[in-house]
Structures are given as structure tokens and as C-alpha cells.
């Protein structure tokens, strides 16, 4: 009865930990065998009988009867006089089975049993959790914000599992409050001691790819393939898509009427600007498409060096480079080529042009850098721009831009 009562008290873990009774019984047997080894030196001559249906157990100690005074191993042998206290008709050489009550192990051993059981169940849970999330790596997962720390957001899923979203795996514009639902991909599962640490990411290219699978039926069904994804999280991304079916326009299907299909993805990523591009094995054409929205005049490729000279009209250069150089950087990553922009234009004007850095005594260096970020590094390239457009594309005030243009105009008037 003592054994049954103890089993039932241990079974409270079953409900708390959602562990099935059979597994609990297997863990119990392992725990009890460890306790028997500690007390008797070996568990080889013990039978542990567990009934998972009834939740009861029995421990039986098996010994051989030897003549009085000839006991060499008290764990595996019992004297004849001791054996006859159990059953009066035992003889030398016979086997004796005696039930062991838990109380015989001692109070301290029973407390150790309980602690060992807790440890084993946690170990079992952690192993299962590790396997479960290892299978989910690269998949989208949703969890709720539990609390926000300076270097990470701690999330909890519906089953109470803790998931970590590190600061560097968050989109720069992300802002979370307790209770918010957060989507990301399970990027990795690492064992910290015996406990698995589950890492989520919202900056991974895989996250964007999986969002396309979720939001665009043709991608989910395999009619449209995502060939490659590159992104600067929260700023800009480029996605190359293809289809085996000539009747399907992969770009149109992904973007949708007036951007209806891709809008949800853009919103999820903090209004990240997403260019969807038709994939092709023609490297020149692929580079041309990757530099969208700029119109490329021609491309000259060096396959050995994996470089490409891209020729553009002067007014297209800033579009090709993009704000902060993001467009040309992503185009290079998408195509696998190092891209070098070559300006086409009026030769006389180009020869007469002046690098902005030549004006460093009149124009602050940080202002010159702002123009360079959008591909404007000469005087004439700046003067050709619309002031309102420059205010929108740079971090410069209108007054500063007008002042720069005045200085540049004076150069050519002189």
C-alpha cells in the first residue's frame, strides 16, 4: 500500500508535465533501480513490477538460501534461519523472494527518489522539446510576448514553451508590448546545459520566403518557385521568382492587383520595400532586372572575376544605387556579381563635371556623404535633380540643398 501511495503522489507530475503514464512508469523504474543500487550495491537481484494501468508497483528482492554462518554477500544470499522467518519450510539452495517496502529504504532515500524523479521528468521534457523544435527549424511560428528585455524579447507559446527573439534578430522598426502576438521563423535550437534554448528570427531571408508561401497560394502549391531572397531587414528586399508554367506570370501573381497580395507581407516586415523579380539564367538580363527600378543601357560581364560593369544614363544612376546604396547592394547579392556603375551621358558635360569632394571647403563632409548615398557624387549630377525629390530621398533640409546648389552653380558660372 505504501508503494501504491507513493506512485500516486509521483503521478501528480503526469498531469503537470503532460507525460504519459507508461513513460512515467519507465522513469520510475529507472529511479528506483538507482536507489536500490545505492542501498544494496546492486539491483541485479531485484524485480520491479509496475502496473501502468492501475498505477501500482512492487519491489521483490531475490536471494539464495545458504547455511547459517556461510553468508558472503548479504544482498544475494540469506541464511537458512533468516529464510525460515519468512517461510518455515525453506531449505539450503532454494530461492527466496521477499517484498521490499519503500520505508525500508529510509526517509532520506525516499526524498532523494522524489528529487531524482523530478530531474528525470525534466530531462525527458527537455529532450522531447528539443526534438519538437529541431523539426520546426526554418518554419514560421507564432508566440506571445511574455516580457521585453533590452537585448531580447521573451515569447511564450500556447504550451508554455519559452522562445527567445534576440535584438539582432528583430526588424529595426519592431516594437513589442506584453501580450502581442509575434511571427518569425524558428532559426535554431541550442542546448544550454540540459535546457533547450529556442531562437526565433524576423530578419532571416527564410522568414520572407516562408511568408510568400503562406500568403501566395501559387508559391504554396509549387507553381511558383522562390529562387533566391536577399534583404536588408526593415529597409528593402529583392525576391527572384520563377514558374515552370509559361501561362503563369510569377511576378504578377506574387504582387497581386495593385499590390494586394504582397501588402500583408510588407506590413508584417515593418513596411520593408520588396522588389519581386523574374528569375532568368541569362546573367545580363538578370542583372538588368535586379537593378529595377533603374533602366539599364547595357551590361558587360567578367565571368572569371564575377564582376559586371553596368552602363546607365546619368538620370538612372541614383535609381540604380538607391537610398543608402541598398538597391545596388541587394542586386549584387541577388545576382552573385560585384556591380560597378558606369555613367553614360554628354561627354563634354562629364569632362567639365567636378567631384563633390572638391567642394569640401564650402560644403560639409556629412552633406556630401548624404548625396553620395543616393549615387550623386558630382556637381552636375546634383544640379540635375529636383529639390523636392532630394528632400524626400535624403536627410537634408531644403535650405541646405538650395545652398549646395547655389555653390555648385557658381562653379560653372565662373
TrEMBL record:
GO molecular function: DNA-binding transcription factor activity; RNA binding; translation elongation factor activity
All residue ranges annotated as the NusA-like second KH domain in the record: 284-346
Localization in the cell: Cytoplasm
Presence of the UniProt keyword Protein biosynthesis in the record: yes
Main localisation: cytoplasm
Every Transcription factor NusA N-terminal domain range: 6-125
The UniProt record lists the keyword Transcription: yes
BP GO annotations: DNA-templated transcription termination; transcription antitermination
Superkingdom field: Bacteria
Keywords on record: Cytoplasm, Elongation factor, Protein biosynthesis, RNA-binding, Transcription, Transcription antitermination, Transcription regulation, Transcription termination
Domain Transcription factor NusA first KH: 202-279
Signal peptide: none
Gene Ontology CC annotations of this record: cytosol
Primary role: Participates in both transcription termination and antitermination.
Family the entry assigns: Belongs to the NusA family.
HAMAP family, per the entry: NusA_B (MF_00945_B)
Summary of subunit composition and partner proteins: Monomer. Binds directly to the core enzyme of the DNA-dependent RNA polymerase and to nascent RNA.
This protein's name: Transcription termination/antitermination protein NusA
Provenance organism: Flavobacterium suncheonense GH29-5 = DSM 17707
Organism lineage string: Bacteria, Pseudomonadati, Bacteroidota, Flavobacteriia, Flavobacteriales
Amino acid at each position: 500500500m505504501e508503494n501504491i501511495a507513493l506512485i500516486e503522489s509521483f503521478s501528480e507530475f503526469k498531469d503537470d508535465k503532460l507525460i504519459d503514464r507508461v513513460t512515467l512508469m519507465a522513469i520510475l523504474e529507472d529511479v528506483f533501480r538507482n536507489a536500490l543500487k545505492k542501498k544494496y550495491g546492486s539491483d541485479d537481484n531485484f524485480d520491479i513490477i509496475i502496473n501502468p494501468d492501475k498505477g501500482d508497483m512492487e519491489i521483490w528482492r531475490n536471494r539464495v538460501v545458504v547455511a547459517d554462518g556461510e553468508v558472503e554477500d548479504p544482498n544475494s544470499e540469506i541464511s537458512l534461519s533468516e529464510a525460515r522467518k519468512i517461510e518455515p519450510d525453506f531449505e539450503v539452495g532454494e530461492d527466496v523472494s521477499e517484498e521490499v517496502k519503500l520505508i525500508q529504504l529510509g526517509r532520506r532515500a525516499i526524498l532523494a527518489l522524489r528529487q531524482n524523479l523530478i530531474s528525470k521528468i525534466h530531462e525527458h521534457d527537455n529532450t522531447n522539446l528539443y526534438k519538437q523544435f529541431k523539426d520546426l527549424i526554418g518554419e514560421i511560428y507564432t508566440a506571445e510576448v511574455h516580457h521585453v528585455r533590452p537585448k531580447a524579447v521573451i515569447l511564450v507559446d500556447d504550451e508554455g514553451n519559452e522562445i527567445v527573439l534576440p535584438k539582432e534578430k528583430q526588424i529595426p522598426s519592431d516594437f513589442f508590448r506584453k501580450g502581442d502576438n509575434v511571427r518569425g521563423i524558428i532559426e535554431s535550437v541550442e542546448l544550454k546545459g540540459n535546457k533547450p534554448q529556442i531562437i526565433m528570427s524576423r530578419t532571416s531571408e527564410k522568414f520572407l520566403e516562408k511568408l510568400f508561401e503562406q500568403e501566395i497560394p501559387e508559391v504554396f502549391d509549387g507553381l511558383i518557385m522562390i529562387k533566391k531572397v536577399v534583404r536588408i531587414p526593415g529597409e528593402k528586399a529583392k525576391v527572384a521568382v520563377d514558374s515552370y508554367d509559361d501561362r503563369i506570370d510569377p511576378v504578377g501573381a506574387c504582387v497581386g492587383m495593385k499590390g494586394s497580395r504582397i501588402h500583408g507581407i510588407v506590413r508584417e516586415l515593418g513596411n520593408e520595400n520588396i522588389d519581386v523579380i523574374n528569375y532568368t539564367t541569362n546573367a545580363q538580363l538578370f542583372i538588368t532586372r535586379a537593378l529595377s527600378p533603374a533602366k539599364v543601357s547595357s551590361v558587360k560581364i567578367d565571368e572569371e572575376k564575377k564582376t559586371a560593369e553596368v552602363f546607365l544614363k546619368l538620370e538612372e544612376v541614383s535609381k540604380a544605387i538607391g537610398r543608402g546604396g541598398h538597391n545596388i547592394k541587394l542586386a549584387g547579392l541577388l545576382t552573385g556579381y560585384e556591380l560597378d556603375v558606369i555613367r553614360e551621358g554628354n561627354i563634354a558635360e562629364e569632362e567639365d563635371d567636378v567631384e563633390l569632394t572638391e567642394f569640401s571647403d564650402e560644403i560639409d563632409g556629412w552633406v556630401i556623404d548624404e548625396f553620395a548615398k543616393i549615387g550623386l557624387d558630382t556637381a552636375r549630377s546634383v544640379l540635375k535633380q529636383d529639390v523636392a525629390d532630394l528632400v524626400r530621398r535624403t536627410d537634408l533640409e531644403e535650405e541646405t540643398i538650395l545652398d549646395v546648389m547655389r555653390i555648385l552653380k557658381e562653379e560653372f558660372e565662373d
